[in-house]
Amino acid sequence: MIDITRIREHSDEVKTALQHRGKDSAVVDAFLEIDTQWKNLITEVEELRKLQKDLTKEQKREQAKENKERIKEKTTQLSELEEKRYQLLVSFPNIPSSHTPVGKDESENVEVEKVGTPPLFSFIPQDHVTLGEALDIIDLQQAAKVSGARFYYLKNEGALLEFALIQFAFSQILKRGFQPVIPPVMIRPDVYEAIGRLTEDQKEERYYLPSDDLYLIGSAEHTLAPLHMDETFSEKDLPKRYVGFSTCFRREAGSYGKDTKGILRVHQFDKVELYSFTNPTDSEQEHMHLLETQKELYKALELPFRVVEICTGDMGPTDARQFDIEAWIPSQNTYREVASCSNTTDYQMRGTRTKIRMKDNQTVYAHALNATGIAVGRTLLAIIENNQQEDGSIRIPKVLVPYMNSDVIQKKNA
User: C-alpha angle 81/87/89, rounded to 5°?
Assistant: First the structure.
């Protein structure tokens, strides 16, 4: 959630921020109205409780009895107002950074740089599904029989390539001072809501287990964010950097057409995720550190990619500033997202009550940042398509060869 004081004291700024995000700014006035009612009612209840003490002390039993009923009635009203106020508050997305480009949708995202050159093939390139099935490393048909559409088996060198990517990513990321974590893949609803990942429009994307009252996570970010819930860091111990690995689960509601073919958008996938807790004064610098870490990984994998800064209208609700890395996908003749990198400022940390004790002994909310290390399925897809050879084999990027014990994936009868 965002800072209540910011809404109260800078309502016009918050309205503008919501408008830039394509949201109805009327929610600001609605919140302020209920917030005023809530504050007035708190004062009224406190006065009634003070009166109750006086009436009891003076042994005015009948008046005390009547006053007690009024307190009960007002307390019920206060609880109802608190719930309305809270629901309005959690509906606010984060306030965009002053650096974030203003735009209505993805068409107004800003390309920052391009790295590498898309391959020029002397033959007609195939998509990853055709290549993967011919090499017996991806099996979509059997997965559909077993689990339904948009699941897949990774087999043989395909499975080994996933493990190679994970080992490579961890080996590089640990050198940069990150601590390795395998987080839970289930999360309680109240914690999911606390990190801003369970708003009403997000629930349709989540898999819910009603018997256990738990959700399956959509990213390791979702259980890394509350890793220090209800804790207070010492300023000298920051930044705290983590690299997590998890299986992720998403309904991918609303995706269609070419995105539903193959392994670009599926219901289950694996991902290496970076997460940082930092001092508010250092979060912009930490954001750039995460982005550079991502870029070094994709450069080492020899994949052509571009970096795009996401505009206000396309940015995730928890983010104040966001970059995406998009790899070149030959079968689609365009760049597609394989990684994102976001500064969520104190938005998630207010929900998890994660703070920092500063040198002057004051406490402030920590800032938190997340970034994709390696989205395995999408990166596999990019490697397969960009490194295909005329005979249908796949060249393995040099940095992965030591983990694969091979520099090529080829047909079994080749």
Answer: 100
For the cut 70, the answer to whether the pLDDT of residue 256 exceeds it is no
Taking the mean position of all CA atoms in its chain, how far away is CA 172? Answer: 22
Per annotation, catalytic residue among 21, 265, 336, 350: 265
Q: Indicate if 337 belongs to the active site.
A: yes
Q: CA-to-CA distance for 90 and 189, rounded, in angstroms? A: 14
CB atoms near residue 231 (< 10 Å): 14
**C-alpha–C-alpha distance, residues 362 and 364, integer Å:** 7
Bond into 304 cis (ω within 30): no
Measured CA to CA, the distance from residue 85 to residue 293 in angstroms comes to 40
DSSP strand E in 174-261: where? 179-181, 186-187, 207-209, 214-216, 232-234, 240-249
Cα 114 to chain centroid, rounded: 24
- Out of 3.30.930.10, 2.40.360.10, 3.40.50.300, 3.30.565.10, the CATH code matching 106-409 is 3.30.930.10
Strands, E assignment, 76-151: 110-115, 138-139
Q: Is 340 a catalytic residue?
A: yes
Instruction: Answer yes or no: 265 catalytic.
Output: yes
Residues 207-233 pLDDT 10s: 999 999 999 999 999 999 999 999 999
Could you give the residue ranges of the DSSP H alpha helices within 21-127? 26-57, 61-90
Nearest to 386 by CA among 325, 305, 329: 329
pLDDT in tens, 149-195: 999 999 999 999 999 999 999 999 999 999 999 999 999 999 999 99
Q: Which of 219, 276, 283, 340 is labelled catalytic?
A: 340
Does pLDDT of 414 surpass 60?
A: no
140, 143, 145, 149 alpha-carbon torsion, rounded to 10°: -70
pTM exceeding the 0.90 threshold for the entire prediction: yes
Exactly one of 276, 284, 378, 385 is catalytic; name it.
378
Could you tell me the two tokens for 363? 């406490």
CA 402 to chain centre: 32
> CATH number for the 4-90 domain, one of 3.30.499.10, 1.10.287.40, 1.10.1520.10, 3.20.20.60?
1.10.287.40
Catalytic residue among 206, 250, 336, 350: 250
CA distances from 198 to 10, 271, 318 (A): 26, 20, 11
Q: Do 217 and 187 meet the contact criterion of CB atoms below 8 Å apart? A: yes
Residue from 108, 176, 337, 395 carrying the catalytic annotation: 337
